[in-house]
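Q: Give me the 3D complex with zinc ion.
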Amino acid sequence: MVKIETILGAIAKEYNLKKKMMYIYGDLNGYTVKINEDLENYASKLIVCYTIKMGDVEKEAIKKALEDLDEENQKKKILSSEMEPVNLFKKYSLEKYYILDDSVQFKFISTTPKFKEKFFEFVTWFTNVLSETGIKKHVCPICGMEIENDKDWFLVDYKVYHAHEKCINYMNEKNENDNSVIEKEDQGSYLTGIIGAILGSIIGSLIYIWLGVNGYWTFYVTPFMSGLAVFLYNKFNGRRSKNKKYILGSVVFIMVILADIARVVIIVANEINKYMGQNMPINYILDVAINFIIDREYKYMIPYILLGEVFAVISLIGALKSDITNIKKLKIKKLS
Ligand SMILES: [Zn+2]
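A: Here is the predicted complex, encoded as structure tokens.
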């Protein structure tokens, strides 16, 4: 098994690519690439991403070339709509490829000792495919014009771009505008969203109360309250905007406190009813329970509630981060 650092190092040396902590990048025979390692089931894979702007014609031509290569190896192939999983191209240790609008990505199995030579051979082959397809070298993948400045390298959402700085800025602005259009067009309502969030956290609260009354710890239930609140906020067509996180945060925060008060009230009610030998009126029970909380129980409740709130907030942040309705921003970093 050959270590991946050795392979990345050898490739960087061969093509004069620049090194970063986790990847190498640069101009590979005139085309922009980023190469990194990916661990998959403990096996080391090499991910090669060419950033190229392509039209449908170019995409088809590249796909055809790769398919012909696959046929050469007489392997079966499974087609899916957007990605192209293919069986191993033995010749180059290639496992899979993906053709997207702005990039072509390859996954290589990189553990064989002869991999380095196979990879160099593949690069030569693919460079020819790209030139024959008519994709020009040393051009900005955004505007398609020639790029002279060798300093303009950017990392955009984990892809490397060798592009004009103004084109990167333009792409970023366009992305933000596209997203704000989506936001404006969204006709969701705060009211229905809040109802959904309250309903979701009430369901979570019932479990919280039941566990608490029966003498179990409850703080670990609060992430469930957060998750259900987010889920039902979306299901009830809650408005997708910056305020969403504040609404959900407030609802869940208040519901954790209310759930714990309800837990204590029910425990007090059970005690009173047992002591009196009959079911006492609800306003009498509430009166005793609230006084009990104010007099001494709050000292035990506050740290307990805080523990639940911490768990609720952490999971709420997590749930909102993975929430598909969040506005997506490009992560842009200039590479030195
Ligand atoms: Zn440009």
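A quick observation: The two ends are 32 Å apart (CA to CA).
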